[in-house]
Structure formats: structure tokens, C-alpha cells
Amino acid sequence: MATQIFVNLPVKDLNRSKAFFTQLGYTFNQQFTDEKAACMIVSDTIYVMLLIESFFQTFTKKEIADARKTVECSIALSAGSKEAVNEMVDKAVAAGATIPNDASDYGFMYQHSFDDLDGHHWEYIWMDPNGAPENK
């Protein structure tokens, strides 16, 4: 069995977050979705668990970071082309996301990012596997 990843993110309003990510084209596994959590399907092995803050807090004794003020992580996902990167960021902005930085184009790699409704930082990246610089 392939290793799976479940990224857990605290959200203020679960229904609002689900609507946001639905506008980006993501779907949810209803088997693991209820009034406290939603399992967003990114791929066959990648899932994002959107957890209302009070439920998220049951998994840790630490204070939950306010992602609008502090970066707790950067979630980076690959895309099939530069155009696909821009399409995803455009969809996110249309759904209410903000753009923290301009896109970066390194020739062999292109990236652009947005902050979602709760301030979580998302990067979408396209890389040309034949164009990456060699390590010396």
C-alpha cells in the first residue's frame, strides 16, 4: 500500500471552507465528513482534513496558530503546466483567496500561491523534469 498523507487544517467555518475548495474543483469523501470535519480529496494518496477549530484543538495541547498572522506551513502541490498553476490560483481568488506574492518563473519551475479563507498558504508548482539544473 502506498503511503498516504493527511494534512489537518483548522478552519473557522467548515461549510464556507468546503464551498471554497469545491469552487477549486476538489471533492470530499463523505465517509469521513461530518459537522466537525471534512475529508478533501487531493489525489489517491493525498487528503486534507478540514477540522473546525474546536475539534482540531482536541488533537493538541498547543495553541492553534492564526494563519492570517503566522505561517504554520506552506502546502505545496504540483500542477501539470504553468497554465494549470495560474488556473488554480485564479479559481482561488474568484472564491475569496488572497495573493501574498507574485508568481515566480525560474524557467524549469513555475510557482504561484494564495492564502485560503483561513489564511493557510497554498503553493501550486509546475516543474519541467528535463529542465532542472544539475547539482554539482
Describe the structure.
By secondary structure, this protein is an alpha/beta fold. It has 2 domains: 1-60, 2,3-Dihydroxybiphenyl 1,2-Dioxygenase, domain 1 (Roll), CATH 3.10.180; 72-136, Roll (2,3-Dihydroxybiphenyl 1,2-Dioxygenase, domain 1), CATH 3.10.180. 20% of the residues lie in helices and 32% in strands. It contains 3 helices and 8 strands, in the order E-H-E-E-E-H-E-H-E-E-E. The chain has helices spanning 14-23, 53-56, 82-94, and strands spanning 5-11, 27-29, 37-41, 46-52, 74-78, 104-105, 109-115, 121-127. The strands form 2 sheets. Strands 1-4-3-2 form a 4-stranded mixed beta sheet. The longest helix is centred in the middle third of the chain and has 13 residues, at 82-94. The protein is globular and about 45 Å long.
